[in-house]
User: Fold these one by one.
Assistant:
Number 1:
Amino acid sequence: PRRRTLSVDDYVAGVRSGDRAVIARAITLVESRKPAHRELAQEMLVRLLPHAGAAHRVGITGVPGVGKSTFIEALGKHLTGSGHKVAVLAVDPTSGRSGGSILGDKTRMTDLGQDENAFIRPSPSAGTLGGVARATRETMVVVEAAGFDVVLVETVGVGQSEVTVADMVDMFMVLMLPGAGDELQGIKKGILEIADMLVINKADGDNKDRAQRAAREYKGALHILQQADPDWSPRVLTCSALVEQGIDEVWGTVKEHRQALEAAGSFERKRAGQQVRWMWAMVRDRLIGALEGHPEVKALVPELEAAVVDGDTTPAVAATRILEAFGLDHA
Ligand code: GDP
């Protein structure tokens, strides 16, 4: 049967009362790119915003196989077991192309998926990283207004996705594998700079010693890096998601991080900076979208690109002609 259309009032009331079906539909609404849906979604978000913001927002990344879903399941159960309500979101800009999200998948988190104090939502398949990030940030408002006080945002290191997720959360955590000798080989350049915490997972059985050794090496590596946040020096921990060891220490460090930032007065400032950067990211995305979709620009681009390739015109002159076609005469 056709579902009843919901008004903004219906969405707000349903989300606020924690109605899971309405929460899911509200997220589908913010994921939509149809102009009418966008308008409705913004009306809803403006009303939900005063009720959002109280959650711990934690980003989690790591290479495939490091144990992200096992870890999120263990951490999530630990948290719901101590009275928290946990939302798990995912940012995976490749999910549309690969035909189904590998992240935030309920079938990978079977216990947490059935927990009534947990809400798992796979990555929107909105295509571009900007689109996926926009939807995820707005989804965060929805789940926080619904009363979830911990939001875990999972991402896999594709392109810029870690940097994007790090800029929508309070704390960014990188899961690592215990490994001998070449610990620092597998990690993407720049990831240590944005990590607030490194967690060496799979520190169990035969891996225990190697995990400790890896932890020492990472501590050394972090030590020589310029500290990104003046109020927090990144921590290195070990845990086993499989046998659920060290999970409470990880959560303790998340809380410690928040206390440190709040004590220094930089917690609200960090969030405020993220909101302003998000606004400008949307301006840029929409400007570029409008430019690329502009009929006169589209008609002009092939010949201009060819002229630039052939050296018949300079990139600067071609850029000016594109902007003029778009209607910007003095840019
Ligand atoms: P993801 O791809 O990062 O989400 O990784 P998964 O959570 O799917 O885990 C990949 C594999 O590693 C699975 O076979 C898990 O059972 C295993 N695994 C995850 N965490 C641990 C751990 O703490 N210890 C051990 N020994 N294996 C783990």
Number 2:
Amino acid sequence: MTKTALITGTTSGFGAATARRFVAGGWRVIATGRRAERLQALVEELGADHVHAAVFDIRDAQAMDAAMDALPAAFRGIDLLINNAGLAQGTKPAQEARLDDWQRMIDTNVTALVTLTRRVLPTLIERRGAIVNISSTAANYPYPGGNVYGGTKAFVSQFSLGLRSDLHGTGVRVTTLEPGMAETEFTLVRTHGDQAASDALYHGAQPMTAQDIADTIWWIATLPPHLNVNRLEMMPVSQSFAGFQVARE
Ligand code: NDP
Ligand code: 8X3
């Protein structure tokens, strides 16, 4: 039987590549995001039988509810929730950061993610489905300017582990995927539209691609049903760890 994935944030980056990967694998995809024209283009590219576009701002709980209530019959049985929509805002140290940037990250990466998860859980339990939550290496390793972004992703990772405990015995699988540097619109968004800063960050670094992440999510989702990947951290070979910093008088 054809399976259905609800993938948030499919207008760009990981989400768009993952939507294409799952449709190529024979799944139906509910594709979400604010940019309606990009979702429409995805529907035209992959076919209305395979993709349903649900246009809403994920921070708007009422709009989310309306979009979920309006799902066509063929897309109602959700087998996989991929909580991917998210963002970083700003790179400044906490003492210089904008409070509205912090609020936007918390609203999107945390509040919206738990709201949608709570809504979809009964269906996932009914269908012995799965959840893949997109966290980040920023959940595990602090770096200057990572402050609230890292905090939101640490929440996502810990929430995922908590879900595993609560869903014990239901057959529902939960994975948190923690990628490092990958070239998408992520840095453009983080810098409020600075394309040069984005290009400079990725230049010569061979970052991961959205396709790398899509293939990994596909692998996680298509493992035999008795296996659960709890958490998976991945980086490009060009990225690794640096030591502690020491302030001297
Ligand atoms: P992109 O900026 O390319 O894509 C982000 C997606 O999230 C877009 O489709 C965007 O849709 C959606 N989104 C953001 N805010 C909202 C909102 N308020 N309502 C609805 N949709 C929203 O970035 P990535 O693909 O890189 O990011 C995907 C996820 O991966 C994020 O959670 C990010 O934190 C995480 N991540 C990214 C890494 C990277 O290096 N790229 C590494 C580790 C994790 P739209 O703007 O149309 O609404
Ligand atoms: C994105 C990876 O290193 O920019 O989550 O925080 S990083």
Number 3:
Amino acid sequence: MPTDERLYSYCAELMGSPILLKLYSHDEALASRIFQLIKRYEDLLTVNRAQSQVMSINHAAGQHPVTVSLPVYALIKCAKAASMAQDSAFNLAIGPLVKLWRIGFQGHRVPSAAEIAERLPLTRPQDVILDDEACSVFLAQAGMEIDLGAIAKGYIADRVRDSLRQQGVSDALINLGGNVHTLGNWSVGLKKPFAPGDALIGSIEVASQSVVTSGVYERYFEQDGKRWHHILDPRSGYPLDNELDSVTIISANSLDGDIWTTLIYGLGVVKGCAALRHHEDIEAIFVTKNRDVILSSQRNFRFSLLDDSYRLTG
Ligand code: ADP
Ligand code: MG
Ligand code: MG
């Protein structure tokens, strides 16, 4: 990290999240170009507004294919592949269930078993029909909805990284509401689940890597003495229930980080670690409800424990 230059921070509120950009030079124009870029991608990908390219696909479910721009098509294609993988907890067609639970939004509630059973057949990833030539997406059944909420931030963080690089920036940190991406050497805090404010379990040292954390403490509500969080099991239609409070993925690309945080939630610690053995460049930090911090490997990062109520293993 250059020590002779000052660090400048730029903030914005986009994608329903606080966005933070840190640079080692004072450059309002660059920051504003980056925020514009994020906004343009949000406008294409969001499902939290009436209009976007993804919403056009959803509105046409059961009726006709919709031609979209190449980046949107490529992202949906990648998301479908991740959804079709064996034992995948990631599902791009999870929309009808997300809208039913409304976790993190007004009107959240525990749906009845009948309501969930009714929607499960509308979440089949194989019913997302792609046409490479037409660059179009067709949802085969009325009522289907694509939801890229789990990967949009990662995808956009990668585009921000590319854009910064193209503009000659070699030291920068971008935090898209929890998706952190870096150019150069940075220390990224690992949040303490359910703790108030900025309490940290530890710090993660990385160089030009993405650091994505998904935690059950991020968005949830309580009902019937249970905590219902926002990562749903596509098989059951209920929030994924396992030993994890959070999982952090360190990887070159933030899109991989986003997909893998969801996959790991579905797999848990043991199967998750086993799966990562086949993917050298995807590394995980698991934080369990028992306060164990488990590292799958430590090739592209260094972890320091800062909270001694947690135990570091692995
Ligand atoms: P955030 O970054 O907003 O905390 P996550 O990256 O943890 O969100 O992803 C959660 C979001 O992904 C949910 O709000 C929902 O929109 C979507 N989602 C929930 N369950 C799944 C799933 N099994 N597969 C794909 N997307 C999901
Ligand atoms: Mg996310
Ligand atoms: Mg998250």
Number 4:
Amino acid sequence: MEEKVLSIDSATNELIKKAKEDGVETIFDRKENMKPCPMGEKGICCRICAMGPCRITPKTPRGLCGATADVIVSRNFARMVAGGAAAHSDHGRDIAHVLHMASKDGNYKVTDEVKLMELAKRWKIETEDRDVYDIAHEVAEFALNEFGKPFGTLEFPPSLPEQREKVWKDLNVVPRSIDREVVTIMHSTHVGCTADADSMLNISMRTAISDGWGGSYIATELSDILFGTPVPRETEANLGVLEENQVNIILHGHEPSLSEMIVLAAEDPELLALAKEVGADGINLAGMCCTANEVTMRHGVKIAGNFAQQELAILTGAVEAVIVDVQCIFPALAPLADCYHTKFITTSPKARITGATHIEFDEEKALESAKQIVKEAIFNFKNRKKEKVFIPQTKSHAVVGYSTKAIINQLDKVVNSHIDIAGTVKPLADCITSGVLRGAAGIVGCNNPKVKHDYGHIEMIKELIKNDVIVVTTGCAAQAAAKAGLLSKDARKLAGKGLATVCELVDIPPVLHMGSCVDISRILELVGLVAKHLNVDISELPVVGAAPEWMSEKAVSIGTYVVASGIDTWLGVAPPVTGGPRVLEILTSEMENMVGAKFFVEPDPVKAAHQMIERIEQKRKGLEEKF
Ligand code: XCC
Ligand code: SF4
């Protein structure tokens, strides 16, 4: 029988083969045997109360309480949004707590003072003659209040165009406070509450907006204040970044409060000496999933791989420890690590996993905590079994670290090289209105074994840049792009003439790495600033979004706030809503009348890219009439 090729990434395929030889299973094997429940796939199974579970069939068109397919589907969808928004926003809250404990002599410090002052000014916090840390603590407290303030509405950042805010006011989807919106969904989806698909989706939008323009936005801004706003730097990506003769540590998860300290610990002379003592040449950190994005953006830490590769890292037999915090961590890592010498270390009380070694990360003693964790990895080096080691020789060069500020400065430097002013988005806006760049696309999201690994991301990105659409990317999509060499400046040879010229002139790759998934707030910021500069609404810009291989609830929240922000969004995997005709109609059609954008579902990434380009050209026409 011919072997199915499961990834477009050779390192991944080689390690899938090794898994067979080693007699261990991975997600790719489990996928073969898993038959998704057809009810769940359509979203028409309700488990909200114990009279059920109820499932909708031609013979039972309503649940016991009378809920229709659309009611059930819309509630299930809303709960996905709530789960995703909660995860992103709780991440933001944790970072706010860390800023609140930052001090001059502590482990956590203020790194980007300019950004701190901007935020203080925006939130009307007194800055004159005050200690930086007093300001930081007040900024943190203000941010924390955004999660649960009893009155008023969310403080929007200045990048939000007023036209957009008006759309939201008219639809009554302006969030009150972040936690409150998540709670409202949990309440409204309780048995005997919302039984109206339109209203349920409206509530979902409000919660999603509180994530994108609230919790995620706060996570990004406060992370930049604490750990620095990213600037372009070089790195390498794929499992080939693991080192034969070093202590290899995989950093996996999401929150930079942990990974930043691990980075510091790994540079500690004492620990480096310890590594030498156990016979290693050094300590090699490599990132996975969004933690990889966080630490590569700020330190150039190499990228081991994306979501679908987490087991494969252990399979190399060369990883001393996988250190995780929260989100996107396979429970499968625990039994798998037992088959190798790898230590699987959980650190967060929010994500304990049976079979893992749990060393709780204590932010109060952050560096000490991090050192203890790194030591575990170093001591484990001696247990590595040479005969089990196989590191694929695949890695690609990449440029990462394009925060909004970095993009603005990069463009401005070239166009206004003689003027010493703070950067503006004018050059970028000019490139778009003149048509040198046809438009921009944000390609984001996960891996999902329903799609050949990385295929959805890479085929879509290539098609877009070939057609002069500049791509910005975050999350596991960004890592796919890095591994495929699309984040290297060389990749401009794959771009159309207009985009290639801009890339050469400005010295950027055609695909810009903007960070982790909470950093989609950077994309919102950039798009919002361009819209404001042109005095149009976001929905008028030739800008599109896509999640070709999405899988998480966070992605559902993201998709919903991106569409609610006026950006058409393509999904490569259908969400579990197809059993609700009204829900489907709203998401894929009627939302356009409400927010000026909608969802598209298209599994073929090249076809999707062409639909995206078509929409971009339509938007261009509208803009041309204006200018
Ligand atoms: Fe997770 Fe953020 Fe998805 Fe990757 S892209 S699989 S959510 S790590 Ni966010
Ligand atoms: Fe069934 Fe209604 Fe209970 Fe859902 S809420 S399980 S549809 S009775």
